Amino acid sequence: MMTEQDRKNYWLDLMDHQAESGLSIAAFCQKHNLSRHQFYYWRKRLDQNNKSTGFIQLTPTERSGSGVKIYFGASPYIEVAPGFDPSTLQKVMKALGGYLCSA
Measured between alpha carbons, how far is 56 from 65 in angstroms, rounded to an integer? Predict the structure, then answer.
């Protein structure tokens, strides 16, 4: 039987695979015989878990980088490389909470 943490890890892995696949959520779920309803449910649930801490976990991949670079200074900006992970960028933007726009 899966523990709550096992279920969270399972869905986090699925969400990472979906983001890396380049497929829409609908196409990914159809291809892997997953319920879109459950996918969105877990995405929202896990996103709310991240909001409670105020931090996000960035994990290096086997690629040379995440494809997302953040520059702070007088004119802060974010640079993305081809093939970047959109879900990571979205999480980073939420964590920054408008810092780049107000700086």
Answer: 17
Sequence-ordered strand ranges (E) for the chain: 68-71, 77-80
Contacts of 86 (CB under 8 A, 6+ apart): 19
Q: Which of 86, 47, 92 has its CA nearest to residue 72?
A: 92
Would you state the structure tokens that stand for residue 66, as one six-digit string? 């995440």
Residue 32 has pLDDT above 50, yes or no: yes
Q: Which amino acid is at 58?
A: L
d(CA 54, CA 32): 32
pLDDT 10s digits, 47-99: 765 554 455 565 555 555 567 777 766 666 777 777 777 877 777 777 776 55
The model's pLDDT over 60-69, given as tens digits with 9 standing for 90+, comes to: 555 555 677 7
Q: Where exactly are the structural domains of the chain?
A: 1-53, 56-103
- Comparing CA positions, the residue from 20, 52, 57, 18 lying closest to residue 38 is 18
